[in-house]
UniProtKB/TrEMBL annotation:
Cell wall-binding repeats lie at residues 191-210, 211-230. SUPFAM superfamilies: Cell wall binding repeat (SSF69360). It comes from Blautia faecicola. Gene3D superfamilies: 2.60.40.2700, Cholin Binding (2.10.270.10). It comes from the Bacteria. Keywords: Repeat, Signal. Transmembrane segments: none annotated. This is Ig-like domain-containing protein. Residues 1-24 form the signal peptide.
Length: 248
């Protein structure tokens, strides 16, 4: 009977890590050498599933903060979020995620958001949390580090157009080859975001050129005519576009 009790106690002790809420992520933190409270806070929810984690590969060090929460009006131009990371050896890559809760794990990967800078969309009201996972690759081995979260809130109030209207009088469309871009009064140009020009909304790519045709921004699809203007209240290719331009 004593022997059976001893075996039962051993089984319970072995299973305890599986029954604790933080077992998976805390065990990962120990394996990759997290040794400070601040580091553990930043990396506690990093998902390393299916990654070829190699202890000999240096972990990326994130040297910048995500900053305070920000709030934008609907369709306003958001400021880009930038992360800075370093590593002694290897190649760094990036993947941005969005989350409905304030956590840097369990989020949804943002398609195409694989640079050190990401500009959040402002086409829908609500609050989202953004973070980036930085990967260091050396040969077949990798190490990952997740940033903290950046809280972005979009209000239901439409962005004021006073500044836009002021630039419309002197702003002008410019052509580079087959591409069009918009030059503001001060010589700058919109890029990687939305801009309202003479009552119409345009979406510009990372190089500042207008997008045309179908394009996915965040979770939503939009359609832009041949001049780059967002199409609203219309049916295109069998899909209906609402008054906000979002495909229904």
């Amino acid at each position: 009977m004593k022997l059976k009790r001893g075996l039962l106690a051993g089984v319970v002790l072995c299973c305890m890590p599986l029954m604790t809420a933080c077992s998976a992520k805390d065990t990962i933190g120990i394996l990759v050498g997290s040794n400070s409270e601040e580091t553990q806070k930043e990396e506690k929810t990093v998902d390393l599933n299916a990654a070829n984690i190699d202890d000999s590969v240096g972990k990326p060090e994130i040297t910048s903060e995500m900053g305070d929460p920000v709030t934008y009006d609907l369709h306003a131009t958001a400021d880009p979020i930038t992360v800075e990371a370093t590593v002694s050896e290897g190649t760094l890559s990036y993947q941005w995620y969005r989350n409905n809760v304030d956590s840097n794990g369990g989020g949804t990967a943002i398609d195409g958001a694989t640079e050190a800078t990401y500009t959040p969309p402002t086409t829908e009201s609500g609050t989202l949390y953004y973070y980036v996972v930085v990967t260091n690759t050396v040969g077949d081995g990798v190490q990952l580090t997740a940033s903290g979260t950046k809280c972005v809130t979009i209000t239901e109030q439409e962005a004021a157009t006073d500044d836009t209207e002021a630039t419309e009088e002197t702003g002008s469309w410019q052509q580079s080859g087959d591409n069009w871009w918009y030059q503001r009064e001060d010589g700058t140009y919109p890029a990687n975001g939305w801009e309202e020009i003479k009552g119409k909304w345009y979406l510009f790519d990372e190089n500042g050129y207008i997008r045309t045709g179908w394009y996915q921004w965040g979770d939503n699809w939009f359609y832009f005519d041949e001049n780059g203007a967002m199409v609203c209240d219309a049916d295109i290719d069998g899909y209906h576009l609402g008054s906000d331009g979002i495909m229904q």
